[in-house]
Design brief:
Elements lengths: L1 H30 L12 H7 L4 E6 L19 H6 L2 E9 L18 H7 L10 H18 L4 E3 L3 H12 L5 E8 L10 H8 L1 E5 L22 H12 L3 E3 L5 H10 L4 E6 L13 H9 L3 E4 L3 H4 L4 H15 L4 E3 L17 H8 L5 H19 L3
Parallel strand pairs: 1-2, 2-4, 3-4, 4-5, 5-6, 6-7, 7-8, 8-9
This protein binds zinc ion.
The site of zinc ion has 6 residues, from loops.
Length: 387
């Protein structure tokens, strides 16, 4: 009898270890895929140029996966050793709090959710198993705690002075990265406009209106209704502006984007996207709508995955950047990788010098490379972070 209990106990320990220990890594490896590619080239000239750039990226979901980001890993695209190898100064870290089963670019409802099982298998705090608000709070806590525990790796960018501190430390030779706390889809507000201020106090400085499904604020580009903003959405946007939060229009329906532009002057980003004129995709809003965002000073982050840019190679990324500069102007184009956002990519954060090499050897000027690789993002944050 005793033996049987011991065996049952051993089996439950082993299955718990599998579910709570191995499963999250296994899941991430399936979701954040590295695509095979020919070896990347980086000339001495490109490497030397890359080391003088402010490198920045508008969108990564790395804090979703419960990896130790202080250690170099082989799965995913981002951790701090790899960001440093890529000479990153700025990285936006976004919170994914709900994602429907069978997620696609055409039509989703909000009835199902894959993030719940991720919260459970990662043994996250109990309130995150049921509350989207709690998931939003957890993300800010993870980013803030990481910076507190690894001050040599990250400073959280909440104000202009944080940005100045970051740049002064980097100028003195430190490899510290500025992390900005963002939210992908504002459903963690749970319909409460007063929660905008609560999240701003936690450190959020960028909030996307919707993700893959229509929510309390309005229509998703991949939702059922394609509706514009709700009254709550309009109220929430006004509160975001009052609380110094940058509005992210990625994933919003065209009508929700147009409504937002009618009631607000921003600041706006489309943190991770492709350009429809260069890659026609249901993931990308029309060039005409994108132009209206740019007309209000918006910044566009070019993604690295197929659904956005049609071609994941360095050449595919470069073609989007070239189209973006020619169509929308140099000052409006930045990088928006969507690293660790359940997409398949060829380029990972440590390999970013290869993108500089590719741009340099394909006729991009040094001015263009400086702006797109992160200079534009730096200027945008310097203009829009609060005092
Ligand atoms: Zn996304």
């Amino acid at each position: 009898m005793k033996k049987r209990y011991a065996l049952a106990f051993a089996i439950s320990v082993i299955s718990a270890a599998l579910i709570f220990g191995v499963a999250p890594r296994y899941v991430e490896k399936q979701m954040n895929v590295h695509l095979p590619h020919d070896p990347f080239m980086v000339s001495d000239q490109a490497q030397a140029l890359h080391e003088t750039l402010i490198v920045g990226d508008l969108h990564a979901d790395s804090f979703l996966w419960d990896r130790d980001l202080s250690k170099r890993d082989t799965i995913g695209s981002v951790d701090f050793p790899r960001l440093k190898e890529g000479n990153f100064a700025l990285q936006v870290f976004s919170a994914v709090t709900k994602s429907p089963r069978g997620q696609n670019y055409e039509e989703n409802d909000g009835d199902s959710d894959n993030i719940t099982s991720l919260m459970v298998t990662q043994l996250r705090p109990l309130d995150t198993w049921t509350s989207l608000f709690a998931r939003g709070r957890l993300h800010a806590q993870l980013v803030n705690d990481y910076a507190a525990n690894h001050p040599e790796d990250m400073v959280v960018l909440k104000s202009k002075s944080d940005l100045e501190t970051l740049m002064a430390r980097r100028a003195a030779g430190e490899t510290v990265v500025g992390g900005l706390i963002a939210m992908e889809g504002a459903h963690p507000l749970e319909g409460g406009a007063e929660n905008v201020k609560v999240f701003a106090e936690m450190g959020y400085r960028m909030i996307g209106l919707t993700h893959f499904f229509d929510n309390e604020l309005g229509g998703s580009l991949h939702g059922k209704s394609q509706m514009g903003l709700t009254d709550f959405g309009k109220t929430a946007i006004r509160r975001m502006i009052q609380n110094n939060i940058i509005i992210d229009l990625a994933h919003a329906s065209e009508q929700a984007v147009l409504d937002t532009l009618t009631i607000s002057d921003g600041p706006f980003v489309v943190s991770h996207t492709g350009l429809n004129g260069a890659c026609e995709s249901p993931r990308n809003i029309s060039d005409d709508t994108m132009q209206k965002i740019v007309d209000k000073g918006g910044l566009i982050g070019i993604g690295f995955w197929e659904g956005a840019i049609c071609d994941t190679s360095l050449d595919g990324i470069a073609k989007q950047i070239r189209y973006g500069i020619d169509r929308f102007g140099l000052e409006s184009i930045a990088l928006g990788s969507d690293w660790d956002g359940a997409v398949a990519v060829e380029l990972t954060s440590n390999e970013t010098p290869a993108l500089t090499h590719h741009l340099l050897s394909n006729g991009f000027s040094e001015t263009e490379i400086r702006a797109v690789m992160g200079g534009n993002l730096y200027r945008f944050l310097a203009a829009h972070l609060p005092r």
